[in-house]
C-alpha cells in the first residue's frame, strides 16, 4: 500500500515537472549586452526558446518610459544562412512604449536550435529617461507557429531588468563641442562663416547657412541661461 502511494506521488511530481518544462518550452525573452545610456541609442536582444521547430512568431514588447524602439532586424544564427524572414515592428498607438514585433517565416523554413538570439531591437533613450533599473517586458501571449502551422502560446510574462545610465549631455548652442555655452561658440560660428564652413550643430536657426545670425543666437541663448 505504502509503495502504491509513493508511486503515485512520484508520478505526480514527474507530471508536474513535465508540465513546468512544457510551459517554459516556448518563450521570447529580452537580454542586453550593455546598459543603456541617456541621450543615445542602445540595442536589446530578442531571444527565442522553442521545443520544436518554429517558422513564424510574434510578441508584444513593452519598453520603460523614455525609451523608444526604432527598428528591428533578424540576427544571424537561428535561421538558415542567407534566409531573411520578414520582420516588422509596429507601435501600439494606444500605449507609449508598446510594440508588436512579428516575424513571418516562409513555408517550411524554421529556426535552427532551441534557444538564443533571434533579433535585435534598436532603441533610443531620451535625455530625461529615469536612471537605474528599467524593466523591459515581453507580455504574456507570445505566439509561435511551427512549419506545419502548429501553434504554441507563452502564457507567462517575461521580464528583463535592464539598467539605464547617464549618458553625455548635449548642451544647446555648444558649437565648438567643449560642453559649455559661451562667447567662444559665437566666435566659432563667425570663424566658420569666414571660412565658408557648415555644420548642423552650428546652424542654430536651421536656415541652412552658418552666419552672424547663428552667432547672435549664441548670445541670446547665453542671455537666457
Ligand atoms: Ca562651447
Ligand atoms: Ca543659420
Summarize the structure.
This protein is α+β, with helices and mostly antiparallel strands and 225 residues long.
Give the SSE map.
Elements: H1 2-23, E1 27-31, E2 36-37, E3 40-49, E4 56-62, E5 67-74, E6 86-91, E7 98-104, E8 117-125, E9 132-138, E10 142-145, E11 151-154, E12 158-165, H2 183-195, H3 212-224
Parallel strand pairs: 2-12
Antiparallel strand pairs: 1-3, 3-8, 4-7, 4-9, 4-10, 5-8, 6-7, 9-12, 10-11
Helix pairs in contact: 2-3
The structure holds calcium ion (2 copies).
Question: How is this structure best described in words?
Answer:
It contains 3 helices and 12 strands. It has 225 residues and is α+β, with helices and mostly antiparallel strands. The strands form 2 sheets. Strands 2, 4, 6, 7, 9, 10, 11 and 12 form an 8-stranded mixed β-sheet that branches. A hairpin with a 5-residue loop joins strand 10 (142-145) and strand 11 (151-154). The termini are far apart. The model has no long low-confidence stretch (mean pLDDT 91). Bound molecules: calcium ion (2 copies). Residues 203, 205, 207, 209-211, 213-214 line the site of one calcium ion (CA).
Features:
225 residues, 4-stranded antiparallel sheet, alpha+beta, 34% strand, 2 domains, 3 helices, Immunoglobulin-like
The CATH architecture classification of the largest domain is Sandwich
Assembly state:
single chain
How many separate structural domains?
2
State the separation between the terminal residues, measured CA to CA: 86 Å
Find the structural class using helix and strand composition.
alpha+beta
Q: Find the count of extended strands (DSSP E, 2+ residues).
A: 12
Shape: elongated
| Uncertain stretches of 5 or more adjacent residues | none
**Which CATH C-level class of the largest domain is it?**
Mainly Beta
Report the portion of residues in β strands. Answer: 25-35%
The helix count comes to 3
